[in-house]
Amino acid sequence: AQKITQTQPGMFVQEKEAVTLDCTYDTSDQSYGLFWYKQPSSGEMIFLIYQGSYDEQNATEGRYSLNFQKARKSANLVISASQLGDSAMYFCAMREYSGYSTLTFGKGTMLLVSP
Amino acid sequence: GAVVSQHPSRVICKSGTSVKIECRSLDFQATTMFWYRQFPKKSLMLMATSNEGSKATYEQGVEKDKFLINHASLTLSTLTVTSAHPEDSSFYICSARAPDSPGQFFGPGTRLTVL
After folding, report:
1. Quick check: B49 and A50 CB within 8 A?
2. How many CA atoms does the CB half-sphere of A10 hold within 13 Å?
3. Residue numbers in A near B109 (CB within 8 A)
4. Mutation choice for A interface testing from B104, B105, B110 by most A CBs within 10 A
5. DSSP collapsed to 3 states, chain A
6. Residue-by-residue pLDDT tens, chain A, 115 positions
7. Is the separation of the CB atoms in B10 and B20 below 8 Å?
């Protein structure tokens, strides 16, 4: 079974609008971390935001916020006031802290921001 | 902080040759580094986990004799694609786990084209 599910292969948004990228996860661990990365066409993976499973507050980093709903096992990324430079592939990832832990990635969502 | 470099950024080689890709953590020591492979418009696929001073741990289906990994120091891991073939053409990305950080920091990637 997939551990990270991103159901939106592509999303379109107009500049200055907000957009939500969906991510659901599957784990039986109590301790885990959720991450969002941005990958522009250059290929580099840019870390955006992190949410720990025990964090009670939703993480925020500038225009990025993570809507963490633990009971629903969802960790959606919200980008406020979209900019043209936000056009990129976005990956949700999870790291389970028990045992052999590494990042597991979702399939990604391609975001296109139009003027 | 937490910068990871990768060299070369792009390489074109003939079928049958070997190619070495270097991954360096520039401002921190990384006991664990990871190597990923990414096909166009696909997610990152973990190939192996590289541990300083010990053998790499390969994911299922990854040929360890084909993809040689060496983690000789706390700041350097290398991936050697031996006897490369056109099907090995891909985008290879390394990442490193920084101390006291829950996530991983990624290098800029290496685009390998085997003719």
Report:
1. no
2. 4
3. 43-45
4. B104
5. CCCEECCCCEEEEECCCCEEECCEECCCCCCEEEEEEEECCCCCCEEEEEEECCCCCCCEECCEEEEEECCCCEEEEEECCCCHHHCEEEEEEEEECCCCCCEEECCCEEEEEEC
6. 679 999 999 999 999 999 999 999 999 999 999 999 999 999 999 999 999 999 989 999 999 999 999 999 999 999 999 999 999 999 999 999 876 678 899 999 999 999 9
7. no
* B109 contacts A107? CB cut-off 8 A: no
- Cα gap A39→A108, rounded to integer Å: 9
Interface residue B95 vs chain A (CB under 8 A): yes
DSSP B59: P
Total length of chain B? 115
Contacts of A103 in chain B (CB under 8 A): 34, 46, 95, 103-104
